[in-house]
Amino acid sequence: MSEKITAVQAYINEVMASLPEVKTKKEHNLKSGESLWSLAKQELGGKKVSNKEVQEYMLLIAKINGLNTIEKMNGLHVNDKIYLPDKINTSAEKNGMNKEKSPLEKSVEYIINLLKNDKTAQVQKANLSLENSHYHIFRDKKYPNGFISKTSPVLSFTLDKNEQIVKLSLDDINDILKLRYDYDMDKNGKTFLREYPYRTVGQISKEDKEILFNEIKRLHGEYKKNPKTYY
User: Fold this and answer.
1) Are residues 26 and 119 in the same domain?
2) CB 22 within 8 A of CB 87
3) pLDDT at site 219
4) Per residue, what are the HEC states of the chain?
5) Is residue 143 a contact partner of residue 129, using CB atoms and an 8 Å limit?
6) Into how many domains does the chain fold?
7) Is residue 2 assigned to a domain?
8) Nearest-CA neighbor of 193 among 166, 216, 170?
9) Is the same domain home to 185 and 127?
10) Are 76 and 36 in contact (CB under 8 A)?
11) Residue-level pLDDT at 212
């Protein structure tokens, strides 16, 4: 069984995946009183930068040094040699070239492809008394021992009285929370991690949101021809 990823580690992974490529690096020997945070602030020019900018640059420094956990970042000592960004591939950052997709983007891409291509994907209504209507999308899943589940969850979604999607829940491709969906997404594509502290992890593009929502609506249209309720 894979180890559960904490909310903090999931955030670190998410930010690091979105950071630009560093073209060249410069060496730096840690001095007494220095930290990745203070170095990041110093490199960005000090007082006029926001904490958010310092945090992201700190994680960029951590990334190029292979410090991908809090424990590794806090494990540095005086006189340790680390690398600082010298030249950043700003053109790649600006144009999105060579930028690795975030776990959220990969998850949405995976689900879109599944909804488009998996002929077993189907909508069932949740057996709940709610002001809005809540639904699940399931698919068939075959396990290594040959067992086939007809109710392997893909996502759940909620429709308002006008049958517009107001919320959906889905998993990260790394299955962060194991026993429940990892993310909640609102009608605008803003996405939150479903674990305390409940925080924003990203915003999917308008294009991906439109494709995802259209696929859900298509399957909901098929459901309406032959309604099923999930108990």
Assistant:
1) no
2) yes
3) 96
4) CCCCCCHHHHHHHHHHHHCCCEEEEEEEECCCCCCHHHHHHHHHCCCCCCHHHHHHHHHHHHHHCCCCCHHHHCCCCCCCEEEEEEEECHHHHHHCCCCCCCHHHHHHHHHHHHHHHCCCCEEEEECCCCCCEEEEEEEEEECCCCCEEEEEEEEEEEECCCCCEEEEEECCCCCCCCCCCCEEEECCCEEEECCCCCCEEEECCHHHHHHHHHHHHHHHHHHHHCCCEEC
5) no
6) 2
7) no
8) 170
9) yes
10) yes
11) 96
Which amino acid, residue 119?
K
Q: Model pTM? A: 0.58
What residue numbers bound the domain in which 62 lies?
7-95
Q: What is the pLDDT along the chain (231 residues), one digit of tens a residue?
A: 456 778 888 888 888 888 888 888 899 999 999 999 999 888 888 667 788 888 888 999 999 999 999 899 999 999 999 999 887 654 444 444 445 788 899 999 999 999 999 999 999 998 765 666 999 999 998 888 889 998 899 999 999 989 999 999 999 988 888 788 999 999 999 999 988 777 888 889 888 999 999 999 999 999 999 887 765
User: Is 126 domain-assigned?
Assistant: yes
In this structure, the chain runs to a length of 231
Residues 45 and 143 in one domain: no
Q: Which of 50, 72, 95 is at the close of a domain?
A: 95
Residue 134 shares a structural domain with residue 218: yes
Per the listing, tokens 């009285």 go with 161
Give the list of residues 6+ apart from residue 42 with CB closer than 8 angstroms, or none.
none
Structural domain ending residue among the three candidates 95, 127, 160: 95
Closest by Cα among 113, 164, 155 to 135: 155
